[in-house]
């Protein structure tokens, strides 16, 4: 059975479809800047801002720089394979700037149609087989920000009906969250609980990802929180299915979506904020059980009592101009 696709959407390709478009190269710059009303003496931080290698993404280069000069700047890889950067600034300062610069190449995900056509009940752990990593079990359980509520169960009952193809379920879950919740910057914070988002029916990308995670896990599926970026340039990339109005919701800062494990297809990423399956407009940095595992930057500031701060974040994800052959400087040649 074919599944309905939310719009706008890059089609999930059956294996016999025509050649997919070539990979797209991006230059990524993520700047986080704190300004303090009074000088602080030290800053300890951990940043999840490095793009990670995936079956659909190559990391060609990456660096993190900090102003003022840090006393310590080290990298760490966690249990889920995410790379993070630890920083320590130990001299008095009134401003902290963390720059992440990367060059990545992103290809269009391809999923076998037969895997997406099986019923969702066949995608729970007892049907995974030996090839699925055991760590995927982590993404079937509750986590600090994800748990089942009556509202979650009501959404699940509407989406995951008996015998429904899993691809159709994921398309419907994406559409339903997108249409039922209002994107409202500033309406929630990074600490807003799931119950508040479900009750108020508004939030931002991380909130919508949390709703999707809760619904998928409530029926026994493995679902993980994914952090990353969206293409921000107003370039003409018709092959990527860009919308006529250009920018996608959430492209000005870090973005978040969710990924659901489908045996035979792997992790299938969906973005309820923009009502789409994840495609070449997305750059992945890290994933975890929910936001608490992979915040873009968190830390501790040591300074005088009552010292307030302001935060500015800017993100640029700009396609690298192609050469005469039609490929980016670091993208693989089309097959």
From TrEMBL:
It comes from the Bacteria. Residues 1-22 are annotated as: Disordered. Keywords: Hydrolase, Protease. GO terms for biological process: proteolysis. One of its GO terms (molecular function) is peptidase activity. InterPro entries: Bac_transglu_N, Papain-like_cys_pep_sf, Transglutaminase-like. Residues 197-274 form the Transglutaminase-like domain. Pfam families: Bact_transglu_N, Transglut_core. PANTHER family: BLR2979 PROTEIN (PTHR33490:SF7), BLR5614 PROTEIN-RELATED (PTHR33490). This is Cysteine protease.
